[in-house]
Amino acid sequence: MIINQYYAPDVASSGQLIADLCEGLVEVGHEVTVVCAQPSYDEEVEEAPHFEEVDGVKIHRVRMRGTTGRRSIVLRTLGYLRFLIFSWWIARDLVSGNKYDVVVAFSNPPFVGVVGALIARRGSIPFLSVLYDIHPDIVRSTNWINVPEVVFSLWEQITCWILSQASSVVVLGQGMKQTLIDTKKVNSEAINVIPVWARPEFDVDQEPDPETKSRFGISDEEFIVTFAGNIGIMQPIEHVLDAAERLRTCNVRFLFLGGGVGFERISDLVAKKNLYNVTIISYQPFTEFKNLLLSSDVCLVTLADGMEKLS
Questions:
Q1: pTM for this one?
Q2: Does the keyword Disulfide bond apply (predicted)?
Q3: Architecture of the domain defined by 212-309
Q4: Per-residue pLDDT, 287
Q5: How far apart, in Å, are the Cα atoms of 18 and each of 103, 176, 268, 276?
Q6: Which of 72, 185, 282, 287 has a CA 20 to 30 Å removed from the CA of 31?
């Protein structure tokens, strides 16, 4: 059983990665059940079935009822709370009638590990915690939201409790592993480092659809620099826009493809600086996403200083 708010067809990167994982597990003979939410990363999305089986993965979804999208902290918090409450009910019923080998909880939202730990305890099942971000450290380090110290203290206690319940913990890199050892007192032998994988469908020798560039108003002669994915609180995207400003008179196109809280900031800066060599595109279906990456000359990955220890 895998628990996470986001799962394909939701556009959030964690949901896409988990879908890759689940489909891969099914291919090698495992039975996989996912408890997730209705597509909710964006506000204007089509609902998916409450239950369906896709590529052998059994998917149970929480109905979000007016709490989709990320335009405000309040809306996101309401969505998180709704998912946590109703995912527990769904997972509880599932674990009562089925035998699972392991419960896996990711970190979207940050407290979903509580649901995973409680469900694993209820069914006497091993619990695996997968962290793509370490909370509350990442919020404190970025000053993303201003909350009382007592909230950080409680958040820290909840995170440590989740990790204490896990038979094993997965993180993305050695920096994150060391942070858990130093600040959460997690046994190093219980931590596994598994970086985000590359999809085998991206063969660099493949040719993109020849109409891809024209569909997005990009000239065939332009050199394309692409950032694809979520632009959140950890991406120092202003540095990339500074580069775009310096190269404004060159034949270089900067392409931002994705979403996140930083996309509105990008739009404002592009308009303010009149960066006509910057194109901003929302998340695209996989086929178009693949075409855009294959059309790119350079792809960027950005992370603020020190964030490799937390994300």
A1: 0.86
A2: no
A3: 3-Layer(aba) Sandwich (3.40)
A4: 87
A5: 14, 20, 32, 36
A6: 287
